[in-house]
Automatic annotation (TrEMBL):
This is Putative nucleotide-sugar transporter. The keyword Transmembrane applies. The chain crosses the membrane at residues 21-38, 50-69, 81-98, 118-135, 144-163, 175-197, 209-228, 240-264, 276-292, 298-316. Belongs to the nucleotide-sugar transporter family. CMP-Sialate:CMP antiporter (TC 2.A.7.12) subfamily. GO terms for molecular function: pyrimidine nucleotide-sugar transmembrane transporter activity. Keywords: Membrane, Sugar transport, Transmembrane, Transmembrane helix, Transport. It is a multi-pass membrane protein. Pfam families: Nuc_sug_transp (PF04142). It comes from Rosa chinensis (China rose). GO terms for cellular component: Golgi membrane.
Length: 328
């Protein structure tokens, strides 16, 4: 009598990878959610912004090199590294992110916080589109629905954060050309850069740690060039790089550096779209931490977004895209 075939179980390596992805996503959500509170508490107003960003980039490089040495990949990378490979995998995304940040700064100055936050959430959709165009990674109908649920949740969270910060008005052309268009272009660039990072790590097998090192170096060089004529550059030359710093300032800087490494790991193992889910979930973590440590209760918008975030994550994980088998 034939025995019934045992149902296929996922290989142990798959289970380990899923556990890793879950751990990286959880840590990133906690870090991203706690970062605003940590920065507000430990970074004094006198601290020069460029100095903290530059120090964070250096800390990211050091931490990534330590992790590479620990997992034994540093020697291999040292032997196989090429400038062309680095520019292909990390140079282009780094340049795109630099342009994206500049556009966001222009947009933020010409839009109220609410409009800016709402338009900025469109990067989740553009990430999904770019991932499909570059990696041919399709989404199921349920996953597309989950993405729209996530965007609705993000918009609700933006209402809660920015409802008290509306602008008093302004020139319509200036708002359109220096506010709305820059933030939408920045969202497209964010999706493109995230997809390129995913392509480099998953297709070209470029280490996420190595990409962190390369992108941090490129970003730091761009920032150093900008200090030649920027107000921050003048302040650094006048007061010194660590003006206004205390020992506690290192806490948010190091936290941000570790967060940058986690972003690379999540993008590499889970993809840019799932990273979007983590970032929106982190907004709920921020609201919770504000209630615990500052006594600020979450808004009704935040409470309404909670079931949407949970539902969207559950649907996206439960209904992945499956290739239809052709009937023979």
């Amino acid at each position: 009598m034939a025995t019934a075939a045992n149902p296929k179980r996922p290989p142990p390596t798959s289970d380990k990878m899923n556990a890793k992805v879950f751990l990286y996503s959880l840590l990133l959500a906690l870090q991203y959610g706690a970062q605003p509170l940590i920065s507000k508490r430990f970074i004094r107003r006198e601290v020069i912004v460029t100095s903290s960003v530059l120090t964070c980039e250096v800390a990211k490089v050091i931490c990534a090199l330590i992790f590479m040495a620990r997992d034994g990949s540093l020697k291999k990378v040292y032997k196989e590294w090429t400038l062309v490979g680095a520019l292909t995998a990390s140079g282009l995304p780094a340049a795109i992110y630099a342009l994206q940040n500049s556009l966001l700064q222009i947009s933020y100055k010409n839009l109220d916080s609410l409009t800016f936050s709402m338009l900025n959430q469109t990067k989740i959709i553009f990430t999904a589109i770019c991932t499909y165009l570059i990696l041919r990674q399709k989404q199921s109908i349920q996953q597309v629905g989950a993405l729209f649920l996530l965007i609705i949740a993000a918009v609700l969270l933006s209402f809660g954060e920015g409802s008290s910060k509306r602008s008093s008005g302004g020139n319509a052309d200036q708002i359109l050309f220096h506010g709305i268009i820059p933030v939408l272009v920045a969202s497209v660039l964010s999706g493109l850069a995230s997809s390129l990072c995913q392509w480099a790590s998953q297709v070209k097998k470029h280490s996420s740690y190595l990409m962190t090192v390369e992108m941090s170096i490129v970003g730091s060089l761009c920032m150093l060039v900008s200090t030649a004529k920027s107000p921050d550059g003048e302040a650094i030359r006048k007061h010194g790089l660590f003006y206004g710093w205390t020992l506690l300032t290192w806490i948010p800087v190091m936290s941000n550096a570790l967060g940058g490494i986690l972003v690379g790991l999540v993008t590499s193992h889970a993809g840019g779209v799932r990273k979007g889910f983590v970032i929106v979930s982190a907004l709920l973590v921020t609201a919770l931490l504000q209630f615990i440590f500052e006594g600020k209760p979450p808004s009704l918008y935040c409470l309404a977004s909670l079931p949407l975030v949970v539902s969207s994550i559950s649907i996206y994980q439960k209904y992945p895209y499956r290739v239809k088998k052709k009937e023979s």
